[in-house]
Write a sequence for this structure.
């Protein structure tokens, strides 16, 4: 890794972070803030940009880890059914009138649903004393279909307009970001990052296969389980922070391979930083192009990211073939 | 029987292994590997060669019997310590992530907190891949790919190399090249090699061969002794001709079977 | 103003009517045609009798089979929520349709007249339309001399994520009729997801919160209102929780506007 690249990976996110903080439907000049501008900056934009960055980080990093754990370049954090489980639990909570935590209810329910779903997928992927990538993948896909179907069923049967509206967040929504979400988001995303970055060597070895991982001095099943937990934590946190945002988890790791190579020790943090930056900038665009209306950030993420990714795909070594 | 003053590098005693309960795949297998041994593991497809290597390298736990590495239970050895003594190179090398050759070889250092004497460059040099260091696996020939992982294994510094069919899908040229490389390394670094094989003629190049049939060791010793017409018929269910054209050379042919 | 009656004018008044939207159901009942309704959508819950009618599915996905099996001689549809293809399907099965096209409050009386013509209850429809026109005129008359855009209103449809009533909605019409300014009227869609920071910047004087069926809106809105404490509406406690009167373009719209007016007058007498 060359110095300019490392510098770019540190400076770019900072720049984009500041851009999304001070630009928007109306640019805010940090010098000489009016009362209202100060409130918008501190109470609305800052938590929102932080949540967007955390969420993007979680998606980028968990995508990089999961593609290695499952040995599948098409793995996306949502493939494990974690997001479907989160939305189902949130919907059940809303129908059941659970409002025990006030504004926190939906994120907390979503987080619980995500963790429970992750655990079920883990349990179903478990056989002969270990987690098996194919089993995990299929269990995740199966569970995802089941939970989405149950959610659709609930939505179809219910004549409740409120439920439909209350579930809009699941398709990616950062407009509800507030300061209270930052600490727990930070906690779980950082825990997942720490867990996966400290296991990055093992992840590299697991990408080569369990035999290699064993030969290189790792216990493949233990390492895979730990990495799976880190993916679960980060994905659950991201869904609970702002629903589902596509593209980042699947494609940010591939984009970052161009810049930092495939070594997970660099790829995980780089995908995190890249994911965070992309979501920040996508959210900035989504709230700035048609003010006072806000567009779904997930749409913008893909519109910005996909053409760039396709351009990169024309060059070699996105995949090994 | 001489008293054992020093334990063997690797010793399997009465090892059985079953993938499914009650249906052992490997039966009561015992053998030893000494320092500097060059052993060919020969047997038909599905005879259990890979399973034996996986059990012997600790990847699979034996259902019964013991695997001892320098006299100590392999399963009780710390993973990182084990990796410094024994390395296993699997048969299939399908890797979906575009690591560079240098990145792959450098993974040989993973068991070490303090890097050992050999550097990545030296390992690449040894297998002749210095100018391919920044290439990707897909840019390399089959022989170069094998050499990449041999370099990783060398950097890992283990005294015992368990190689599962490293010659599969290689042209004869690369097969010869790889065997010569391993011999050279044995001379310079005193490594031991256990290699699963298909080709009976290549097995003749080893000092010791073990003939496997249906999870049983049916013969073990110098190739001239083990690879008899009768034994090969038993192991492969093929009639072969054994020729001794010169004073020393032996060749085994099975043209008459086509 | 256009509407379609697929076949030539009926000799007999339709006797077996299926209504494909809650608003047309309410109008049909108001026109005294309740007895003749044989099928309604799952969402038709007003008046009370509507709940006891056969259900034919949702607005956007009515069941063709359910409709056909009721053997209707008229299916009343709306351009605001029913798929156009469904009308064509019904025509291929030779089922007569009436399509209700009014989408704004001002168009409603005329729409009622046309529906009344199709049902052969012209007098009743004329009376209802007249009554409505008078009510609208009365409600709008109080605003003379009250410059538009003076008092800024935000009509919240759903608080999290923040969805508000934008241009072209009955809510927007009602706010304009009452001489106030809907801050979201410049948005580019009818029910936009609205920027929270724009709400702070535009500082509405009154916030109206619509009814979400089955949800306690006071509870659900708590979070968003807490984040709007600097907005005059919230600071001065000018927040009203309204019924769903304006959500359905039918006879209850008048009541919905009155309710809105009461809220505005209570908070800030004109």
């Amino acid at each position: 890794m060359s110095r300019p690249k490392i510098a770019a990976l540190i400076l770019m996110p900072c720049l984009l972070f500041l851009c999304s903080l001070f630009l928007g439907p109306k640019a805010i000049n940090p010098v000489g803030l009016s009362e209202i501008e100060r409130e918008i900056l501190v109470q609305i934009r800052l938590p929102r940009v932080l949540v967007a960055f955390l969420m993007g980080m979680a998606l980028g990093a968990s995508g990089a880890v999961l593609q290695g754990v499952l040995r599948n370049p098409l793995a996306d954090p949502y493939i494990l059914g974690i997001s479907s489980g989160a939305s189902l639990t949130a919907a059940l909570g809303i129908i059941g009138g659970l409002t025990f935590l006030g504004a926190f209810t939906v994120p907390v329910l979503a987080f619980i649903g995500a963790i429970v779903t992750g655990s079920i997928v883990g349990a179903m992927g478990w056989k002969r004393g270990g987690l098996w990538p194919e089993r995990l993948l299929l269990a995740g896909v199966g569970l995802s279909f089941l939970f989405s179907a149950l959610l659709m069923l609930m939505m179809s049967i219910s004549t409740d307009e409120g439920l439909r509206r209350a579930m809009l967040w699941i398709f990616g929504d950062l407009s509800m970001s507030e300061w209270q979400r930052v600490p727990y988001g930070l906690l779980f995303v950082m825990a997942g990052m720490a867990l996966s970055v400290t296991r990055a060597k093992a992840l590299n070895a697991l990408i080569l296969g369990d035999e290699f991982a064993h030969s290189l001095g790792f216990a493949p099943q233990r390492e895979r389980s730990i990495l799976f937990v880190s993916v679960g934590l980060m994905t659950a946190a991201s869904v609970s922070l702002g629903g589902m945002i596509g593209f980042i988890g699947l494609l940010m790791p591939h984009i970052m391979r161009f810049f930092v190579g495939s070594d997970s020790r660099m790829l995980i943090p780089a995908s995190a930083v890249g994911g965070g930056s992309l979501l920040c900038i996508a959210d900035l665009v989504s709230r700035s192009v048609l003010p006072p209306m806000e567009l779904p950030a997930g749409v913008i993420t893909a519109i910005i990211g996909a053409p760039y990714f396709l351009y990169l795909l024309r060059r070699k070594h996105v995949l090994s073939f | 029987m001489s008293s054992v003053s020093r334990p063997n590098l690797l010793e399997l005693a009465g090892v059985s292994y079953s993938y499914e309960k009650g249906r052992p795949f490997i039966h009561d297998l015992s053998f030893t590997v000494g320092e500097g041994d060059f052993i060919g593991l020969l047997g038909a497809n599905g005879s259990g060669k890979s399973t034996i290597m996986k059990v012997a390298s600790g990847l699979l736990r034996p259902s019964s019997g013991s695997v001892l590495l320098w006299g100590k239970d392999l399963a009780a050895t710390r993973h990182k310590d084990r990796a410094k003594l024994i390395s296993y190179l699997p048969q299939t090398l399908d890797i979906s992530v575009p690591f560079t050759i240098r990145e792959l070889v450098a993974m040989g250092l993973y068991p070490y907190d303090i890097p050992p004497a050999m550097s990545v460059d030296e390992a690449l040099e040894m297998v002749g891949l210095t100018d391919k260091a920044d290439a990707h696996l897909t840019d390399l020939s089959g022989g170069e790919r094998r050499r990449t992982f041999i370099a990783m294994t060398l950097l890992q510094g283990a005294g015992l190399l368990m190689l599962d069919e490293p010659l599969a899908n290689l042209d004869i040229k690369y097969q010869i090249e790889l065997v010569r490389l391993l011999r050279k390394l044995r001379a310079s670094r005193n490594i031991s090699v256990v290699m699963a094989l298909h080709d009976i003629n290549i097995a003749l190049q080893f000092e010791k061969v073990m003939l496997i049939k249906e999870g049983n060791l049916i013969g073990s010793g110098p190739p001239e002794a083990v690879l008899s017409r009768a034994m090969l018929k038993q192991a492969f269910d093929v009639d072969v001709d054994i020729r001794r054209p010169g004073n020393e050379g032996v060749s085994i042919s099975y043209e008459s079977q086509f | 103003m256009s509407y379609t009656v697929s076949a030539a004018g009926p000799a007999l008044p339709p006797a077996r009517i299926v209504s494909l939207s809650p608003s047309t159901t309410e109008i049909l009942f108001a026109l005294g045609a309740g007895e003749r309704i044989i099928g309604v959508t799952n969402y038709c819950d007003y008046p009370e009798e509507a709940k006891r009618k056969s259900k034919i599915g949702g607005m956007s996905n009515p069941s063709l089979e359910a409709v056909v099996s009721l053997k209707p001689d008229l299916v009343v549809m709306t351009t605001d929520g029913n798929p156009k293809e469904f009308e064509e399907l019904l025509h291929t099965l030779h089922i007569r349709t009436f399509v209700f096209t009014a989408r704004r409050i001002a168009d409603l009386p005329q729409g009622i007249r046309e529906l009344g013509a199709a049902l052969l209850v012209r007098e009743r429809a004329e009376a209802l339309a007249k009554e409505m026109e008078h009510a609208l005129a009365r409600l709008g008359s109080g605003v003379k001399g009250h410059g538009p855009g003076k008092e800024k209103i935000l009509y919240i449809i759903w608080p999290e994520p923040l969805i508000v009533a934008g241009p072209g909605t009955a809510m927007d019409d009602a706010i304009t009729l009452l001489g106030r300014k809907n801050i979201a009227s410049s948005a580019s869609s009818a029910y936009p997801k609205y920027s929270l920071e724009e709400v702070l910047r535009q500082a509405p004087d009154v916030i109206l919160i619509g009814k979400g069926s089955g949800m306690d809106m006071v509870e659900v809105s708590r979070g968003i209102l807490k984040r709007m404490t600097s907005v005059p509406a919230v600071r001065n406690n000018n927040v009203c929780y309204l019924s769903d009167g304006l959500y359905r373009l039918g006879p209850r719209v008048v009541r919905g506007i009155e309710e809105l007016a009461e809220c505005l007058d209570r908070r800030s007498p004109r």
